[in-house]
Amino acid sequence: MMTSDEEKKDKQEPIPEVKDNIVTTQHSIKLGGRLLRYTAKVGTVVLKEEDDKKGHLPKAEMFFMSFSKDGVKDKSKRPITFSFNGGPGSSSVWMLLGLLGPKRVPLTKSASARLKPPYALSDNEFSLLLESDLVFIDPVGTGYSRPLAGDDAKPDEFYTFQRDLDSVGEFIRLITSRENRWGSPKFLIGESYGTTRATGLAAHLQQRYGMALNGIMLVSVVLNFQTLLFGPGNDLPYVLYLPSYALAARFHGKLSTRLQRLSEAEFLDEVRQYAESDYTAALFKGARLVGDERLKVVKKLSEYTGLSENYVEGANLRIEIMRFTKELLRSQQQVIGRFDSRITGIDSNDSGEMFESDPSMDTAQAIYSACLNDFVRKDLQFESDLPYEIISFKVHPKWRYDSFENRYVNTAEMLRVAMQKNPNLQVLVVNGLYDLATPFFATEYTFDHLGVRGDLQDNVKHTYFPAGHMMYTDKKCLQKLTKEIHQFVKKSS
Questions:
Q1: Selected residue with higher pLDDT from 273 and 355
Q2: Measured by CB atoms within 10 angstroms of the end CB, which terminus of the chain is less buried, N or C?
Q3: Angle at 384 between CA 382 and CA 388, to 5 degrees
Q4: Which of 196, 221, 185 is nearest to 82 (CA)?
Q5: Of 170, 103, 172, 169, which is closest to residue 135 (Cα–Cα)?
C-alpha cells in the first residue's frame, strides 16, 4: 500500500522531453586572400547520462557555436579545434570574438583607450577558420548552458572540477561522433582556467574515450595553483610574481634610470636571476633573515617593484598581487589592472588595500557582451530569452575542486600523463608579459617541473607577448599570435 507521499509522486506529470535546439546558417569571409564559405551551427545540445534504474536521463543543455568550412570532401584532412575560456564561470566569448572566430570585436589604439558605445563587429581577417573548423563551448552555467530541472536535479553538480571534465568531454565526444570527425586532427585551446580544463581533458578524453589529441594551446596558463595562491606557508607566488611586478613598475616609469634603460631581455634576465636565487633564499630563511642581510633584500625588492622600502618591510618582504595593484600608483591616485598591468583606473577610496574593480576587465566586458548578444541573434539567428552569462557569478562561489581535496590543484600531472601516453601531443604555451592574473614566470616554473623526459620536452613551445591576459586585444599581438597558432595547427596536424 502506497503512502500519501508516494501517491503524490506517482501522480506527478512526466518531465517533458528536452530536445537539441540547433540553428544552421551559411556565411562567407575573405581569408588568406580568398573567399571562404562556411556553415555556422549554433544552439544547445542535451547531455544525457545512463542510470541503472531510470535509463538515459537528460542532465543539462550545453550551448555551443561552431563554424566549419564548406566544400571539404575529406574531413580527415581538416583539423577541428574545440575552444573554451576560464573562470571557472566564463563563457567562450573571449576567444570567439577576440582571437579565433570569423568575427571580432573592435580594437583600441592603445591598451588603456576606452571605446565609446555602441560597438560593432567586423570580419576577423586573422580567424583560425582558415586552418581549422572551430567549436566554441560554454560549460554548464555559462552562456546559455544550463543544468536541467527534474526530481533528482542537482543544479550545482556541474560546478566541480571532475563534473566539468565529464560534461565538456561528453560534449566533445558527441560532436566528434555526430560530425564524423574521429578521423580529423583534433585540438583544444583554453584560456586561463580553460588551460586547467584543457590539460585535464587531454588526459580525460584519452582515458575515457580513447581520443588522442594532436595538440593543445594554452593561453594565459594556470595548471599548478600553488604558483598563484598567496597565503601563509606558501612563499612560491611571491617569487614567481616578482618579474611581472617589475615589468609593470618599469612600464609606469617607477624604476631607477639604470633599470629603465636596460633592454627588456636584459631587465628580465636580471630580475629572474634575483628571484630564483637571493630572493628565494631570503624567504626560505624566514625569521632568521635579520640585520644588514634583510635590509639588502628590502632595498632590492624596492628597486625592482617601485614600492617604498617601508612598504616592502611592512609587508614582510611578501607582496600580494591585489595589494601591488593598489600600491604601485597610489601616490598618483590610480590603480593598475590585474589582467593587464598597463591599464590604469581610479577608485573612490585611495587608502584601500585593493582596487574596487579591475580596470583592465572594465575596458573589455561591455564590448564583448554587446557584440556577442548582437552576433548570436542577428548573424547566427539563435534566439533565447535567457541572459547570456558572459561571466556567471553563480558558478564561481559554488565551484569545488573535488579531485584535489586538501591539496593544491595541479593538472600539470594530468598533462604529463597525456604526453607520455601520446608522445605526439604538441603543446603551445602563450604568455602575456603584463598579465598579473597568470604570470609568465609561474608558467615557466610549472613546465620546468612538468616531469616529462627526453624528446618529450621538445613538444612544448613557449611564446611571449608584450600584453596582458587577453593579449589579442592588441592588434600587433593578435597578428603575431594568429601566426603562431596557425603554424602550430598546420605543423601538428
A1: 273
A2: N
A3: 100
A4: 185
A5: 172
Whose CA is closest to 222, among 203, 247, 241, 235?
Answer: 241
pLDDT at 4: 56
Contact (CB, 8 A) for 346 and 358: no
CATH topology of domain 22-226+364-492: Rossmann fold (3.40.50)
Determine phi and psi for 466, rounding to 5 degrees: -75, 65
Grid coordinates belonging to 104: 571580432
pTM: 0.93
Better pLDDT: 330 or 396: 330
Provide the pLDDT for residue 18.
83
Name the residue ranges covered by the structural domains of the chain: 22-226+364-492, 229-359
Q: Read off the C-alpha cell for 90.
A: 566564463
